[in-house]
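Standup notes
- DV: blocked on the single-chain target, sequence here:
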Amino acid sequence: MPAEPGVLAVFGDPVAAARAIRELRARGIRDLHAAMPAPFPEVVAALEKPRSVIDYATLPGALVGLACGILLTYLTSLAWPLTTGGKPIVAVPQFLVIFFEMTVLVGSLTNLVAVSAKAFFGKGSAAFPAGREFNAAQVGVFAAGGGDEAERVFRGAGAEEVQRVG
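- DV (later): unblocked, structure below
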């Protein structure tokens, strides 16, 4: 259950959900959360949340993976030099696949660790009411402590379902 009572609305249209979020923010209700099957850009922009820390962990992980791929191929070739057909010992075109694979591998593992750490240490979805799933184009918007005003805004924005929680 959420930490405080509020109003939960279900929207079939992400644009309507974004419109309701903007209206509530304009009226001073700032504790808003959304649950959706995909990150709809208009809803994400309306929430005005800062970028996730996970974004800043994945790119450095991918760059470390690229460096590991370069070191792995170059040092392996130099440690065991096999001359085949007069080609150079260190040949970049043959190593590009390994560069790419190491970049993806280490970047994705870094992302997995960052997501796991955020889920374990972060607030997570505890702020959103449990027991609801939002599939297809359904977007759930929860206004913590919104009361009657949030309920009116949700209904005016075209919510399919509005209910009090807590």
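- Follow-up: Strands lie at 6-11, 32-35, 139-144, 161-165.
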